[in-house]
Amino acid sequence: MNRKPVANASGWADPNWQAAAQRALAASVAALNSPAGEPGRAYLIGRGILPEVWQAWRLGYDSATFDPRQARRRPAIVLPWHGPQGLTALKYRFLDSQGRQDRFSQRRGGQQLLFGGHLLGQRHDTLVLCEGELNAVSIWQAVHALGSTAVDVVSFGSQGAATSAAVLAVAQPYRRIILWADETAPVRACLAALGSRAFGLKSPTTGADPPLKLDANALLQRGLLGDLLNRALSRFQVGAQAPGPAPGAQAQPEPEPETPQGPARPAPSSPATAAAATIADHSRGCVTRMSVPSTSLSVRLYFCWFSRFRSATLLSI
Question: Where are the alpha helices (DSSP H) in 195-294?
Answer without folding.
Answer: 216-221, 225-234, 271-288
